[in-house]
Every structure is written in C-alpha cells, then in structure tokens.
Q: What sequence folds into this?
C-alpha cells in the first residue's frame, strides 16, 4: 500500500528518532534586538494592564523609600526631642506606607498572573494553529515527542519570563534609580562608598547565563526524547509491538537512561552559578560594613548623624537586593532565550501548503479530475512521481494498482493537497486545485484508508466529526448505508458507546464501516479509497464491499487496491510502477496486453500446487478460483460478526 496515509519514505532516522535529519535544537541562540522585539509583541494586546503594572511599580518604588527616611527622623528628631506625638505620627505613616505597598503588591501579582497566563494561552493557540497548517511533509519527519514538548514543556517553561522576569526587571530598575537618587541627595560621599561594590555583582552574570542556556537546551532535548519514547512505546500500536517482541526490559532501560540524563541536567542547571550567588552574598555584607566604617568616620567629623548612617544602611540593602535580582534576571532571561529559540524555530517553519492569494471558495463541483504531467518528490535525491497524466471523469471509478511503494498513495494525497506537487497541473472541473481554498477543496473529498483512525470517544462523536450539525436521523441513515447500524445497536450504549483509543474496542471491519459511514455523512463528490479492504477477513470484506456501493454511487472515485478482485469493474485501471503509469485500460484489455497487470493478476489468481483457502472449490489445481461476489454468498453472519472465519459461514456455489 505505499505509505499508509501519505507519509513519505523513511528519512533515515532510527527507532527512537536518532536520524541524520537536521535538528532544530542545533541552532545557536542569539539574544538580539529582533528576538526581544518579537517577544515584546506578545504584550501588545495587554498594554492597558501593563500600564497599570508600571504605575503600581512606580508607586511601590517611591513608597518603599518612606520607611528608611522615617527611621532617620525617628532617630535624629523624635527620640532626642522625646516628642511622643511626632514619634507616633512617624510610626503610623511608616505602617500605612507598608500596608499600601502590600495592597499594591497583591494587585500587581494578579495582573502579572493575568498577563502571563493569557500570553501563554495566546502562544499555545498560535502554535496549535500554525502546526495545523503544516503539510504531511512536516509531520512525517518530525519526532513524535517533539511537538508535545514544544507545545507544553517549552511554552510552559517561559511563563516565568512574562509573569515575573520582565516585571521584576522593571520593578528593580525603578527601585535602583529611586534609591540611588535618594542616597546621593542625602550624602554623596556615603553613596559612592556604598555603591562601589555594585560592578562586582554584574561581572560574572554573562558567563553564568551562557552556562545555563547551554544546559537548558540540552535539558529540553532530553525531555523531548523522553516524550518521543513514551509516545512510541506506550501508544496502542507501540505497546502491542513491544509486548510481541518482548522488548519491555530494553525499552524500560532506554527510557530510564534518558530520564536519568535529563534529571542530571536539571540538577546541573539548578546548581549553575551557585558559586556566583555565594560571592554576591559576600559583597552584600561588605557594603554595610563600609558604610559603618566610613559613616562612623564622617560622624566623628560631624558631617553625618547616627540616623543618617542607619537610614543609609537600610537604603543600601534596598539597593543591593534589586541589583542582585537583576543579575539573576539576566541569567534567567539568557536561559529562557533557549526556550524562545526552540519555540520560534517552530513558528518559523514554513507552511508549504497554503491558500493562494487568488484562491476562492467553491460551493459545488461535478468531480472531473485531471492530472497533467504531474511530478513530485519527497526529497531532491529521488523523484517519486514522473509525468503522471490521466483523467477521472465525473461519476467514474479509477483504480490504481501496482507494487508497494510505486506511488499510488502519493497520487491520491496530491488531490486534497496534503502535499503540493512540484510541476505539472491537477484540475478539478477544469480549475487548478490551487485556486480552491484548502477548506472548500477538502470539503468535496472523502478519504477511506486501510488504517482507520477513530478518536477515543463515542461512536456518535466519531461520526459527527464529518458533520457536526448532522441530525440523529442522518447519522442512522449513513450507518444503515454502511451496513453498521445493526451492529451499533447491539453495543451496550448504542451510538453513545466509547470505542477506545484509536477504536481498539472494535474489530477492523467495524471500524472500517464506521469510517465509511462517516464519509457518507460528509457526502463528498470525490471519494478516495486507499486499500480499504486489504487487511480484513472475508466476511468483513464482504460487508465493506456492500457498504462501498452507496458510497461510490454517482461519485468520482479513486480506488487503490492490491486485491484485484475489488477493482475489476473499474471504468479505468492505472498500473503504477516506480512513480510512472506503465499501463492503463479496463480489466480485460490489460489482461490481453500481457504486461505488469497480468503479472500481478496471475500471482493472485493462479492456484499453485499447495491448496489455499479458496482452492477447495475447484476440481483442478490450475483453475482460477471463483471470485467472492454477493450473489454467490448464502447464510452470511449477522452484522458484528466480523471476525468469524468465512469457511464456517459462507457457502460457495461451484
């Protein structure tokens, strides 16, 4: 069947995604003005809240200066003068300013949380919408866990940048400016003495930031790899494969190793710069000692008062705290740039299948499909399709046959523009499909594949995915047409029965008929069927064939099949080999030509010496078996008995 639902051939990466493909994580991050401006754009929708935050920050930074100034007044005036009234007023004013600062802090915290959470909300929505627009080319090459990591861990990890880092930076900047100005106005000599150690805070921050950025990149890569392993091995298909090949211990050890690596990196990141913090703490204790020493000298000379010295030490601590935080903020911002780079790398991925500027909504079509010298390749090293030309007239059935990997599925994937072709032209009703909007083009196309995908919801919810406004009567009618209604009614909750992850609670035939009912409900003019019956047992195939009849009636259909018995009545059969049409015609014509089609036919229908399931109906081993057709079947089981073997339930007419 080619590549299932249209995936390109493997890109060379192994079981756990360790491939040769260029990883986005290898791109080196640069803290540039362009990136900062890009980050800043996320604040624009919340500019009113940001202005209010700035006003609160200015108010709290100024109010924070009140208590140290009042301490000076208390020591130098109220206490020496034994003025109890002044002392009471100064204490009440100090308490009042502290209370107001607390109230403003609560409001600021709410605004910070509001802004940051909604920025993350916007960013996740933007990421989801952007990824929705990516073509299958993107999803067939990216590692499974990578998208989840970008959507969750990466974006969630930068919330702190919006909620605290930027606001704290501005807040601390206001505090530093206001405090430094007050210190200088009080006594410039003491101010210089107290601030002389500040440059020592800043010097190591750049190096610490680089270290944390590097570790952060490595950590996120390991987390992405963890998610990749979890998605592959703990999905239904992966879990079954792991159990069948008894790889539980090997997969556990592999996950354990990656988990250990990420844990060590997280510990390493949390410890990065701790020596720097230790040195900073020493510097913050040196400053007050300098003030006490130099201030004491100035006090002896009569240039300052005791209250001024105490106020200076208090204000100096108020200055050192913000300086210390700003250095840490720089380290955090540098680390966060690694996450922003990973996120922006995804945003910068080009959507190669998009609406053209002149694209229009098409409300109805007749379904006439034309391929004109269409060429396509998944990568430049190998051409997948070469000069494909054919016409599928409205209401007719065109069958595609050929060896696996010949390009059959790729041809069908080009019609709804899951990929865009490299050259040539594809038209529907004489109109280039690129002149349709993607939504209107795809609204006229229904696809039934071998690997039917059902969401982990109810039968009804899966059917409504085709048309959310469908009535119960329309749903039942579609299911009856797909020969699945009777079976659904035997389920515990009928249409409200949960089907399990990927429809695991249903058999292959039951899932396939629900899929057909879903397409019938959509009511498209063009139907694509990609190996819809190849993996089913005989009875399931029989019911699917019955369900397909109403689906294909009066519709243009492109049918891919390995079982040639299912497409013998096609209006035209195209034989595909190595990306080219090597034969075309009706069944009888192709048999007479004696080409690849006859070779495929002979392999399927010539009975060898070893008897097979169908051989017992023939008296001679060289005779062709009788094809299973509805008029040759008697006493078939009731709907829902998809897994019952055909030889126990089907009578053959010789």
A:
């Amino acid at each position: 069947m080619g590549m299932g639902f249209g995936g390109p051939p493997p890109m060379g990466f192994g079981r756990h995604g360790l491939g040769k493909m260029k990883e986005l994580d290898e791109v080196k991050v640069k803290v540039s003005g362009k990136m900062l401006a890009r980050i800043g754009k996320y604040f624009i929708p919340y500019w009113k809240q940001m202005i209010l935050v700035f006003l609160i920050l200015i108010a709290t930074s100024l109010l924070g200066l009140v208590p140290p100034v009042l301490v000076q007044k208390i020591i130098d005036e109220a206490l020496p003068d034994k003025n109890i009234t002044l002392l009471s007023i100064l204490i009440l004013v100090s308490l009042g300013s502290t209370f107001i600062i607390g109230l403003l802090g609560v409001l600021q915290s709410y605004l910070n949380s509001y802004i940051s959470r909604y920025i993350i909300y916007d960013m996740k929505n933007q990421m989801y919408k952007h990824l929705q627009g990516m073509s299958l080319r993107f999803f067939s090459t990216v590692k499974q866990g990578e998208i989840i990591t970008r959507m969750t861990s990466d974006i969630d990890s930068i919330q702190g940048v919006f909620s605290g880092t930027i606001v704290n930076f501005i807040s601390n900047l206001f505090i530093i400016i206001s405090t430094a100005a007050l210190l200088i106005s009080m006594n410039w000599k003491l101010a210089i003495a107290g601030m002389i150690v500040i440059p020592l805070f800043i010097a190591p921050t750049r190096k610490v930031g680089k270290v944390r950025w590097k570790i952060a990149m490595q950590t996120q890569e390991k987390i992405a790899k963890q998610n990749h392993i979890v998605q592959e091995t703990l999905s239904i298909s992966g879990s079954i494969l792991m159990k069948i090949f008894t790889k539980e211990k090997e997969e556990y050890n592999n996950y354990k190793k990656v988990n250990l690596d990420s844990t060590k990196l997280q510990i390493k990141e949390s410890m990065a710069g701790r020596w720097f913090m230790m040195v900073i703490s020493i510097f913050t204790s040196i400053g007050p000692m300098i003030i006490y020493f130099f201030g004491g000298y100035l006090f002896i000379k009569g240039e300052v008062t005791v209250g001024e010295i105490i106020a200076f030490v208090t204000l100096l601590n108020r200055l050192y705290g913000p300086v210390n935080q700003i250095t840490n903020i720089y380290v955090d911002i540098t680390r966060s740039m690694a996450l922003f780079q990973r996120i922006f790398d995804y945003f910068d991925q080009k959507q190669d299948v998009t609406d053209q500027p002149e694209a229009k909504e098409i409300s109805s079509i007749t379904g006439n499909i034309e391929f004109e010298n269409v060429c396509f390749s998944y990568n430049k090293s190998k051409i997948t399709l070469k000069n494909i030309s054919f016409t599928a007239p409205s209401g007719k059935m065109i069958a595609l046959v050929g060896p696996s990997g010949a390009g059959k599925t790729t041809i069908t994937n080009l019609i709804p523009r899951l990929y865009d072709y490299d050259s040539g032209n594809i038209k529907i009703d004489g109109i280039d499909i690129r002149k349709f909007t993607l939504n209107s083009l795809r609204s006229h196309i229904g696809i039934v594949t071998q690997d039917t995908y059902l969401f982990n919801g109810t039968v009804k919810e899966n059917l409504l995915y085709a048309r959310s406004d469908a009535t119960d009567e329309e749903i039942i009618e579609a299911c009856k047409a797909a020969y699945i209604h009777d079976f659904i009614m035997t389920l515990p909750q009928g249409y409200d029965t949960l089907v399990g992850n990927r429809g695991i609670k249903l058999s292959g035939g039951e899932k396939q008929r629900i899929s057909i009912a879903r397409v019938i409900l959509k009511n498209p003019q063009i139907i694509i069927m990609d190996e819809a019956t190849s993996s089913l047992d005989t009875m399931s195939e029989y019911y699917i064939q019955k369900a397909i009849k109403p689906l294909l009636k009066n519709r243009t259909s492109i049918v891919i099949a390995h079982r040639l018995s299912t497409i013998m009545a096609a209006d035209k059969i195209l034989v595909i080999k190595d990306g080219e049409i090597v034969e075309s015609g009706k069944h009888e014509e192709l048999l007479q030509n004696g080409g690849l089609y006859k070779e495929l036919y002979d392999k399927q229908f010539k009975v060898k010496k070893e008897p097979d399931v169908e051989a017992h109906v023939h008296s001679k081993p060289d005779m062709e078996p009788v094809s299973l057709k509805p008029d040759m079947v008697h006493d078939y089981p009731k709907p829902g008995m998809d897994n019952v073997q055909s030889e126990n339930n089907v009578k053959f007419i010789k």
Notes: Residues 1-29, 607-654 have pLDDT under 50 and may be disordered.
